[in-house]
């Protein structure tokens, strides 16, 4: 059931993202990049909002509107608790964080299958507005199969045989990487969704 709820939440945000350029409040993105000997990391967080302009209880759909007036209707699955608490005028807020860390490993390393961890906040109590947070962390060991100093490119091969090119701009980092080395890749993403009640009128 938790897995289904996760998918439903992700679909809700995927429907929101096309509205981001003209959302009720302009989307904001914060990014950070850091490097250290044999290590590199990058992270970015984006926040978007949209306004609820229609709710169809029978079809379990919600229509969201951007600041320009464009609308998008999304279907909310039965797994999302407290659907009946969503009202016209409410604001849907979504916050998505993505981070990637690379760490160079010398010597022989195990190329076992990637490990994945998930964390999901409990469903909101009865009567509250829908909301929640989903987080996922994937860790994998990859092998360096090619280094191209001219293009500043390193090719990594994962435990399942998939290959990816990584651009390494730092010359000190690049010269320390050799074919046959290993790089531990850690990918983290977190998604938070909340529905805020419409402002009360006096």
Can you describe this structure?
This protein is mostly beta strands and 202 residues long. The chain has one domain (2-196). The protein is 10% helix and 50% strand. Strands 1, 2, 3, 4, 5, 6, 7, 8, 9 and 10 form a ten-stranded antiparallel beta sheet that branches. A hairpin with a 5-residue loop joins strand 3 (61-65) and strand 4 (71-75). The radius of gyration is 21 Å and the shape is elongated. The model is unreliable at 1-23 (pLDDT under 50).
Entry keywords:
single chain; mainly beta; 2 helices
> Which H/E pattern describes the elements?
HEEEEEEEEEHE
Total of DSSP H or I helical runs spanning 4+ residues: 2
- Report the biggest beta sheet as strand number plus sense, adding barrel if it closes: 10 strands, antiparallel
Approximately how much beta-strand content do the residues carry? over 45%
State Rg: 21 Å
Overall mean confidence score, pLDDT: 81
Number of domains: 1
Determine the fraction of residues in helical runs and give it as a percent range: under 10%
Low-confidence sequence ranges: 1-23
């Amino acid at each position: 059931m938790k897995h289904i709820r996760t998918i439903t939440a992700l679909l809700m945000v995927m429907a929101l993202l096309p509205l981001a350029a003209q959302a009720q409040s302009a989307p904001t993105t914060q990014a950070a990049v850091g490097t250290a000997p044999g290590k590199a990391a990058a992270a970015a967080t984006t926040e978007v909002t949209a306004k609820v302009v229609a709710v169809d209880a029978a079809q379990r759909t919600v229509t969201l509107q951007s600041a320009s007036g464009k609308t998008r209707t999304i279907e909310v699955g039965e797994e999302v608790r407290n659907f009946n608490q969503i009202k016209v005028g409410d604001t849907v807020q979504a916050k998505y964080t993505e981070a990637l860390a690379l760490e160079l490993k010398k010597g022989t390393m195990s190329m076992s299958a990637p490990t994945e961890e998930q964390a999901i906040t409990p469903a909101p109590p009865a009567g509250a507005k829908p909301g929640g947070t989903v987080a996922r962390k994937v860790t994998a060991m990859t092998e360096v199969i090619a280094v191209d100093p001219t293009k500043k490119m390193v090719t990594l091969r994962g435990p399942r045989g998939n290959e990816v090119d990584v651009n390494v701009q730092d010359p000190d980092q690049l010269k320390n990487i050799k074919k046959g080395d290993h790089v531990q890749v850690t990918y983290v993403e977190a998604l938070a969704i909340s529905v805020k009640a419409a402002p009360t009128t006096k």
